[in-house]
UniProtKB/TrEMBL annotation:
Any Pfam family hit: Peptidase_M16
Protein name from the UniProt record: M16 family metallopeptidase
Family, similarity comment: Belongs to the peptidase M16 family.
Claim: Signal is one of the keywords in the record: yes
Coiled coil: none
Span of domain Peptidase M16 C-terminal: 214-390, 673-850
Length: 945
């Protein structure tokens, strides 16, 4: 499941109570859903009730889409762990998915797939554990049946085999997300310095290898008896359902569970630091990093809101003080982020600065200290407060777009504030704060003597002593299982689905301006939000052979200054509008992306147009962005998965191909590019006839046309457009294995790659269904074998990437170092099995439905709709391709899926790239019978010893 949820569950819900003047009134709740802005006050229409056994239920009726989100919170996290059992709550999260008395092991996720579920996962943070998925609305009973068994009857199936398997999985997760992840052990060291021994937040959520491995079956049962009871859990339902029916079904599925004793209260003294603590942590990183952190008031306590605003002012985006000072002006930092991580027992205010190569962390710290002192002495400006308010308003509304995040929001308020409808009171506290109060909170809480300072430097990390992985038990011993609730035979049969509503996807219309710009519009009335993407066929594939990275450099420059606005002014304008504006390159296109409030859509689109149509390419900004890109290129080397993908692309396409290298280019190419080269590429490629503007949200066709023509109608290409030259094909290849040495790595990052079909291939639907069974789903053959059966990995997945002139197949994931060869051997067996015989009816129906019935849940936000249609246009596909997906998926047969596997999965073309400890990995790879080609992170040959 998910590593561990962000510590800050609801980031910057601040100030929205003061936003009533800018919040437009929505139509009647019945038409628009559960979100209301009546009288300018943001609110969520909800109902809470409690069953006699103590089980809490929150109903949020929202009829915008035929979906229901199921969000179950168990009120237990690391704050409830016993000493010496760090990581227990998160391990228990994994065990919940292993099976229950009425749902066989491994079947939970299969039911969700077959029903067309989306957003299915679990997460653990310091204060709670969350289990969630979204289903089509006709599967209300199925979702409640599954959730009830997860809570009430999972312990019946937990035995030594299940425990050992999930201990392996969680330890692989720790290797992947902490030990083999840049700065992973740095964050852990920060929390260990902040919190004393015995404090439940000290060990971070994931825990240690020793503690995870030490958990015994009796501990699991005791934890379930104490915390996994109906009187310690809350279910939030949000979406398209009848409340009366939902109440009856909740009573049916949850009402017979037996309550447990009241869980013990967590009482721990608030930690205090009275003298600055400083430490240096070595890690396998390219860029040094500074963290400065303090203990701050718990969530919703006095000062929490003020420190949220302080975090936004200091480091809440490109318009913030520290970003402007350290990244833009002094050019000492690669990135800056500041957060008030609010939790129930204690919060953490954290300033994090990644340094540029050669920059001094001491100098950066001195500048941070000076800015803190300034904010403590002088209140933030009215403009800074206004920017925060606009940004927060947009962010909060976007959280309410998805029923999944809406359900999580009310569950959050229910646990942390005792009221699922607390949003109004929460926002009111931000409305009441003053600029002077923000300064006072900074002065009170962010003092030098009360902080922890961590300097992360490149070097060899110091990890805890290796903890052996015991052999996996083959079967459980007699008498290992027990029950908390009685067996109810009727639960063995899953409930039937109700009549499904017609499966429809958001349609779009298009029109073309006189200058050739294609405009694609998908109206989505409801929340007053709009998303847009300007897509230009100017991606990595358009780079001249001798200028890799040019397309990325141009895209990076777009928000960094126009002929009338500086980079700072662009950032401040976007923040004041509550808009998010970014530019990013892809393989075949570049995109300028926008999201924000409908009330400000004219000004936001004008900013987007200015950025795309009038870039300045000013020399000082070019030099700054060049240095930033060079540092980002260096950071790629510290990420094993990214290195594996990069080496794989070079193996497929061959040196000199535009798609063979990293999108950022090379050190040499970045150094050689100048403002003239950037402008020439922009003039040649950024042309209206070479672009599409894709818009989704609360706009009518007439409203959009009235906006687009004045802003984009005058756009004309400069000079003659370059002749269209197709990309060279991927070269014919032979199967081989490439090893990139990463000494001491606790895992091996794998990328198994091969050329694949382009977009629009006639067998696309069978191919996607086949891949879902092979490695596309959590329940796929590869992931089930490597994660759930063998415990080799936290997750391994496959995918086909299809573009207009490019196609690629890939399997990716990280595996335990000592299991690298065995994992690859199992992969080959699964691929061979996929090609050997057709899927059975049950598997076909499940994976086909996982593609077909999940479609509405994949297009449930403006951003998702825009991304879908933007990608569709970039790939050169007709507008109707998206709305025709249901019909195409529905007709896929097992014979068609088998044919796709046999034609598109050629074992003789699969290239294996392994990034890991050569001394341990190379012998395993050689035993597989393939020659091992040892390369460095730049894909250059390395001499054999």
């Amino acid at each position: 499941m998910n590593p561990h949820a962000p510590r800050r569950l609801i980031a910057l819900l601040a100030l929205a109570g003061a936003l009533s003047t800018s919040l437009p009134a929505l139509a009647a709740p019945e038409a628009q859903g559960a979100v209301s802005t009546a009288a300018g006050q943001l609110a969520i229409r909800q109902e809470k009730f409690t069953l006699p056994n103590g089980f809490e239920v929150i109903l949020v009726e929202d009829r915008r889409l035929p979906l229901v989100a199921f969000n179950l919170w168990v009120h237990a996290g690391p704050r409830n762990e016993a000493p010496g059992q760090t990581g227990f709550a998160h391990l228990f999260e994994h065990l919940v998915f292993a099976g229950s008395r009425h749902v066989p092991r491994g079947e939970f996720d299969k039911y969700i797939d077959a029903a067309g579920g989306t957003d299915a996962n679990g997460s653990t943070n310091f204060d709670r554990t969350n289990y969630f998925f979204t289903l089509p609305s006709n599967q209300l009973a199925l979702g409640l049946w599954l959730k009830a068994d997860m809570l009430g009857w999972m312990i019946d199936e937990v035995d030594s085999v299940a425990l050992a398997n999930q201990q392996d999985v969680v330890r692989n997760e720790r290797r992947q997300s902490v030990e083999n992840q840049p700065y992973g052990i740095v964050e852990e060291a920060l929390y260990q310095a902040l919190y004393p021994e015995g404090h439940p937040y000290r060990a971070v959520v994931i825990g240690s290898h020793a503690d995870i491995q030490s958990i015994q079956l009796k501990d699991v049962k005791a934890f379930a008896r104490t915390y996994y009871r109906p009187n310690n859990a809350t279910l939030a339902l949000a979406g398209d359902f009848d409340p009366k029916q939902a109440k009856a079904l909740v009573q049916k599925y949850f009402g017979t569970m037996k309550p447990g004793p009241k869980p013990p209260e967590v009482r721990v003294a608030a930690p205090r630091i009275t003298k600055e603590r400083r430490l240096v942590v070595k890690d396998r990183i390219e860029l040094s990093r500074l963290n400065v952190a303090w203990h701050t008031p718990p969530m919703f306590a006095a000062g929490d809101a003020e420190l949220d605003i302080a975090a936004h002012v200091l480091g809440g985006g490109k318009a913030s003080r520290l970003y402007g000072l350290l990244v833009r002006d002094k050019q000492l930092a690669q990135s800056v982020s500041v957060s008030q991580g609010s939790q129930s027992l204690s919060s953490v205010f954290n300033i994090e600065v990644v340094a540029r190569p050669g920059a001094s962390l001491d100098e950066i710290e001195a500048l941070v200290d000076a800015e803190l002192a300034k904010l403590a002495a002088t209140p933030p400006t009215a403009a800074e407060i206004a920017q925060a308010r606009a940004t927060i308003e947009s962010d909060l509304l976007q959280r309410m777009e998805k029923v999944a995040s809406l359900a999580d929001l009310v569950n959050h308020y229910n646990q942390m504030a005792g009221d699922p409808g607390f949003v109004g009171q929460d926002l009111a506290r931000y409305a009441a704060l003053t600029p002077a109060g923000v300064s006072a909170a900074v002065a009170q809480w962010l003092q030098r003597d009360a902080r922890v300072v961590v300097q992360a430097l490149p070097g060899e990390p110091v990890l805890a002593a290796e903890v052996a992985t015991p052999p996996m038990p083959t079967k459980a011993a007699k008498g290992e299982r027990e029950s908390l609730n009685g067996h109810e035979a009727w639960r063995l049969k899953p409930p039937a689905a109700a009549k499904a509503k017609p499966l429809t996807l958001p349609a779009a219309q298009s029109f073309t301006l006189a200058n050739g710009l294609t405009v694609i519009h998908s109206p989505k009335p409801g929340l007053p939000l709009v998303s847009a993407s300007l897509v230009v066929r100017a991606g990595q594939g358009a780079n001249p052979a001798d200028r890799p990275g040019l397309a990325s450099f141009v895209a990076a420059m777009l928000p960094e200054g126009t002929t009338t606005r500086s980079a700072q002014q662009i950032a401040e304008t976007a923040a004041a509008l509550g808009a998010t504006l970014t530019a990013s390159p892809g393989a075949e296109e570049a995109r300028v992306q926008l999201s924000g409030l409908k009330a400000n859509v004219r000004e936001s689109l004008a900013l987007m147009a200015d950025v795309a149509l009038n870039p300045a390419f000013a020399a000082p900004e070019v030099e700054r962005v060049r240095a930033q890109m060079q540092a980002a290129l260096a950071q790629v080397r510290e990420q094993p998965a990214a290195v594996a993908q990069l080496v794989g692309s070079r193996a497929i396409y061959g040196e000199g191909h535009p798609l063979a290298g990293h999108p950022l280019g090379t050190e040499a190419s970045l150094k050689a590019l100048d403002a003239a080269a950037l402008r020439a590429f922009w003039q040649a490629r950024y042309r209206p006839e070479n672009a599409a503007l894709v818009v989704a949200g609360d706009l009518t066709d007439a409203e959009l046309r009235a906006l687009v023509e004045p802003l984009f109608g005058g756009w004309t290409g400069q000079g003659e457009a370059p002749a269209a030259t197709p990309l060279p094909p991927a070269r014919p290849i032979a199967a081989r294995t490439v090893l990139v040495d990463k000494p001491g790595a606790p895992q091996t990052a794998l990328a198994v790659v091969a050329p694949g079909p382009f977009a629009g291939a006639p067998d696309t639907a069978p191919l996607k269904v086949m891949n879902a069974a092979l490695g596309g789903l959590f329940t796929s053959r590869i992931n089930t074998q490597l994660r759930e059966v063998k415990g080799y990995s936290y997750g391994v997945f496959s995918a086909f990437s299809m573009g207009r002139e490019r196609g690629q197949f890939g399997i990716s994931g990280s595996v335990r170092t000592d299991a690298t060869g065995a994992a690859l051997s199992d992969m080959w067996k699964e691929i061979a099995g996929m090609r050997a015989k057709p899927m059975g009816a049950a598997e076909l129906n499940r994976v086909r439905n996982a593609q077909l019935l999940s479609l509405p849940g994949l297009f449930d936000t403006n951003g998702a709709v825009v991304a879908g249609y933007a990608g569709n246009w970039s790939a050169g596909q007709p507008l109707a391709t998206i709305t025709e997906l249901p019909g195409k998926y529905a007709t896929v047969t097992s014979a068609a899926a088998l044919k796709a596997a046999q034609q598109r999965l050629d074992p003789q073309q699969l290239i294996v790239v392994a990034v890991g400890d050569r001394a341990q990995v190379q012998p395993q790879l050689e035993k597989l019978g393939r020659k091992v080609d040892v390369r460095d992170a730049e894909s250059q040959p390395v001499k054999q010893p």
